[in-house]
């Protein structure tokens, strides 16, 4: 058998083990995984050979939480720039969130976004749909169109995305429990956040005050209610961007009791905190907020023990005009920061190279677990015969400095966190369905290469 491409000499990271393997690709699929010491010359077996010497060959990242702001705010990120940044950061599939304008809460808005992404994306994509107050009748239609999951908010998310109050959460879980879909939540208690914002908003905004206005116990209370309702309804639920170890402990206990719940967290909750990020001002404003250093370190325990199931990015690259609103009050700035091109190498550096996490566990966190939870596996998320040839080469020998001016993202402001940070590994190449899309600093496919991914 002759392959279209063989990736040779890399340390291949599979679901349960690592080894020096040669990966044979035919068309869009992984066709063979051959021992690297077989004595066969890869150049006799394939039209092309990619030498991965010195690199980890990993399953392409599955970003479970991406914001591209399209349609709507064209001056911010869109699917073209955002997926180029994703490819450069090692993500081969992105799951884009529904908080656009219009929000993805009905068939028209879903098809509008899907059409835009199909023209622009350079990596594969799936789409979240909104579970909002008032769209109960549209949810079955959104499932039929192929939404990967539903997203709800437990507190005010703006006029275009009506949040789910207590009764709305129970109603949504009761409905979605029978739809073979997951219901994800931005989990913060509305009474806590509203009350504390009123208390503090007369004071000059700071990162520390932002955290006080959206405290750990507001997130904890919302998670506790979601767990209670999940027990009552049997609905599969997902906690987005978990920021607190106390919430992780609740989730660990709920899993032990049989609750169908998973948790996602993000690089910023493991690398940034109110002490080391205060100088970034509103550019470090994220929701839920960055926590203190002690909570950040405790959260690592739940990443290593498997309580936290996957790493999303919550990529939300707001612009200078967003982060520095007229009037100068940080209370008016939106929460979010860019990270889709930096999160995976940053976490590989910190988790694998510095803290000793196994590459196999890292692959589960960055790819396999998310693909399984959102029904994209076995097509996505793992290196095995028959899977899409979504692969990344991570080179642990390179050292580079993050500079947003060089990012593929639209937002190149250099005041965001991670600016100037040194990373001790880099994404050398990214393949989506057998085709190289990113190669040593360059995007080498045309917009529209990325395909819509419908859950099975």
Structure description:
The chain is an alpha/beta fold. Helices cover 31% and strands 22% of the residues. The protein is built from 14 helices and 19 strands. The chain has helices at 42-45, 79-88, 107-120, 139-145, 166-176, 190-200, 207-213, 216-233, 245-256, 267-271, 293-304, 320-323, 343-354, 359-373, and strands at 3-13, 18-26, 29-35, 46-51, 56-59, 61-66, 91-96, 124-130, 149-153, 183-186, 237-239, 261-266, 310-312, 391-395, 400-401, 422-423, 426-432, 435-439, 442-443. Helix 9 links the parallel strand 11 (237-239) and strand 12. Helix 6 packs across helix 7. The model has no long low-confidence stretch (mean pLDDT 96).
Strand content: 15-25%
Number of strands: 19
Number of distinct helices: 14
| Basic shape | globular
N-to-C terminal Cα separation, in Å? 30 Å
List keywords for this structure.
alpha/beta, 9-stranded mixed beta sheet
Write the layout of secondary structure elements.
Elements lengths: L2 E11 L4 E9 L2 E7 L6 H4 E6 L4 E4 L1 E6 L12 H10 L2 E6 L10 H14 L3 E7 L8 H7 L3 E5 L12 H11 L6 E4 L3 H11 L6 H7 L2 H18 L3 E3 L5 H12 L4 E6 H5 L21 H12 L5 E3 L7 H4 L19 H12 L4 H15 L17 E5 L4 E2 L20 E2 L2 E7 L2 E5 L2 E2 L13
Parallel strand pairs: 1-4, 1-5, 6-7, 7-8, 8-9, 9-10, 10-11, 11-12, 12-13
Antiparallel strand pairs: 1-2, 2-3, 5-14, 14-17, 15-16, 17-18, 18-19
Helix pairs in contact: 5-8, 6-7, 8-9
């Amino acid at each position: 058998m002759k392959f279209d491409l063989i990736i040779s000499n890399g340390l291949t990271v599979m679901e349960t083990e690592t080894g020096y393997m040669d990966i044979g690709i035919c068309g869009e699929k992984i066709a063979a995984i051959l021992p690297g010491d077989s004595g066969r010359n890869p150049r006799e077996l394939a039209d092309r050979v990619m030498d991965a010497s010195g690199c980890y060959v990993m399953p392409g990242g599955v970003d479970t939480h991406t914001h591209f702001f399209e349609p709507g705010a064209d001056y911010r990120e869109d699917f073209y720039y955002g997926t180029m940044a994703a490819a450069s950061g090692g993500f081969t599939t992105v799951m884009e969130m529904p908080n656009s304008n219009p929000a993805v809460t009905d068939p028209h808005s879903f098809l509008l976004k899907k059409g835009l992404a199909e023209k622009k994306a350079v990596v594969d994509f799936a789409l979240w749909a909104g579970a909002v107050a008032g769209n109960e009748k549209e949810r079955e239609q959104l499932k039929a169109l192929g939404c990967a999951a539903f997203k709800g908010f437990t507190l005010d998310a703006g006029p275009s995305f009506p949040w789910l109050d207590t009764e709305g959460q129970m109603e949504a879980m009761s409905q979605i429990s029978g739809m073979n879909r997951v219901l994800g939540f931005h989990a913060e208690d509305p009474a806590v956040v509203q009350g504390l914002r009123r208390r503090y908003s007369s004071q000059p905004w700071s990162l520390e005050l932002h955290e006080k206005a959206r405290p750990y116990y507001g997130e904890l209370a919302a998670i506790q209610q979601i767990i209670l309702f999940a027990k009552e309804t049997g609905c599969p639920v997902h906690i987005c961007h978990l920021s607190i170890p106390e919430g992780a402990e609740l989730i660990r206990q709920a899993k032990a009791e049989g609750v169908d719940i998973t948790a996602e967290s993000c690089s910023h909750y493991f690398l940034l905190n109110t002490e080391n990020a205060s100088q970034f001002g509103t550019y470090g404003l994220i929701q839920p907020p960055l926590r203190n250093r002690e909570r950040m370190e405790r959260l690592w325990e739940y990443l290593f023990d498997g309580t936290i199931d996957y790493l999303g990015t919550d990529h939300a690259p707001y612009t200078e005009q967003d982060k520095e609103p007229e009037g100068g009050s940080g209370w008016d700035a939106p929460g979010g920061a860019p990270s889709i091109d930096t999160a995976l190498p940053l976490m590989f550096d910190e988790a694998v190279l510095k803290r000793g996490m196994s590459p196999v566990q890292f692959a589960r966190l960055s790819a396999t677990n998310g693909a399984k939870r959102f029904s994209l596996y076995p097509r996505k998320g793992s290196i095995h015969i028959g899977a899409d040839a979504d692969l990344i080469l991570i080179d642990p020998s390179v050292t580079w400095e993050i500079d947003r001016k060089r990012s593929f993202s639209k937002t190149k402001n250099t005041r965001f966190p991670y600016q100037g940070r040194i990373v001790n590994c880099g994404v050398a190449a990214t393949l989506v369905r057998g085709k190289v899309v990113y190669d040593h600093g360059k995007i080498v496919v045309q917009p529209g290469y990325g395909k819509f991914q419908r859950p099975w």
